Amino acid sequence: MSWDAARLANRLKHRHLALLINIAAHGSLTRVAAATGISQPAVTKALAELEDIFGGPLFVRSGRGLLPTPLGDLALVRARHMQSDLDLWAREVEALHAGHSAHLNVGVVPYVSSALLTAAISRLHQRYGVTLTLHRATTDHLVPMLRRHELDCVISRATSTVMLDDLIHRVLYRQRPRLIAHSRLAQRLARRKPDWAAVAAMNWVLPAANTPTRQLIIEHFIRAGLRAPSPVLEAYSTDVIEGMLTMNESLMSVVPEDIARELCQRGKLGMLPWDFGWELPPINLIRRKRDQVLAAEERFSEILSELCGDGALPEGAVASAAGNAVSTPRG
């Protein structure tokens, strides 16, 4: 039996998207019925209607419940993207009704300076009336959210895992790593020549092992012929790092220099002048390729480039010569 592509445009409704996503999440029509407050016969009928639209089965029964067929997998990818786009669309409409011009959902890694973010967000709203929701997480969480259309753009480190053709990267600025510790410990260590062996044996708060920063720290100590530090805590939150180092004089950590300067402003922490001899992967604005560019997203990109190019970077950040270049690196 031939399949007519017009079925999708003519018959597919938003409730079908929600049904697809719910079945994949719950793995059972009974659980979908309980979660949505719809009778199971109604859910069964809706699935049959959906499979008629697509011209084939979307799920098969297994010992682990209902699993998507290849046709179901394809439908789920599109359904999730469409649902995310509808959610973002709703936020934009809500912003317009509240008197704003647009709304952006932006993902940001923890080691992006709050001074830069607040300046960019303030300019975006003052100039264009755009509101913004920030989502803080690591690169490995944010980039998949961007690809699922849950975010409009991401401020993050560009690594080989995200350098793919479906994304656009704009280098904003670079960062140098710096050691930080309780102010008394930092003062004692600063009187010495750099002694990596001594600090390697200390207690540490470090980012998780799968992050670019942690990998570079491990490689630094290995190149020096030393065993990499084993952290007592893995954390990316600057609030947690500051709290731990303030309470415990035996702890060390590594953060970007601009972040280190922000953390040391209150006088409880100190930054060591030791030079690691390398830079962290650059901070990038990462966006999806779109057929039609979002005006608010483009304005946000322009403001970030403006801030990173006119001397408004936080102290300790390194302006990039490629700051205004848009690149689409290949894998």
From TrEMBL:
Keyword annotations from UniProtKB, A to Z: DNA-binding, Transcription, Transcription regulation
Signal peptide: none
Domain HTH lysR-type residues, every copy: 12-69
Keyword rRNA processing: no
Cellular component terms (Gene Ontology): cytosol
One example GO MF annotation: DNA-binding transcription factor activity
Family that this chain belongs to: Belongs to the LysR transcriptional regulatory family.
Stored PANTHER family: HTH-TYPE TRANSCRIPTIONAL REGULATOR YBHD (PTHR30419), NITROGEN ASSIMILATION TRANSCRIPTIONAL ACTIVATOR-RELATED (PTHR30419:SF8)
Protein name: HTH-type transcriptional regulator GbpR
UniProt lineage: Bacteria, Pseudomonadati, Pseudomonadota, Betaproteobacteria, Burkholderiales
